Amino acid sequence: MKKVFSFIVGLRRRPLLAWTLFFYAPVTALAVVAILGVQDYSRRLDTELANSQRTSGVVGSINTFGEQITKSILLVEKSLREKKPADTSVYELQVAADRADQIINAFNEGSETVAPDGVRFMVDAVTDEKALEILNQMNVIWVGIKTRADKIVLVAGPHKDNTEAAAFTEKNLADASEFVAAQQTLLAEQTLAFSRRLESLAQTRVKALEGPRTTFIGLAIVSLLALPGVFFFNRVRHARNASARLASELGSSQTRLEAQSQALSTAKAETDRIMETVQEGLLLIDAQGVIGDYHSQELTVILRQEKLAGRSLLQILERLLTEKMFNTTKDYIALLFDANRKEKAVLKVNPLTDIEVNFPNPAGGFINRYLGFSFRRIVENGVVTR
Question: Please, are residues 155 and 113 in contact by the beta-carbon 8 Å criterion?
Answer without folding.
Answer: no
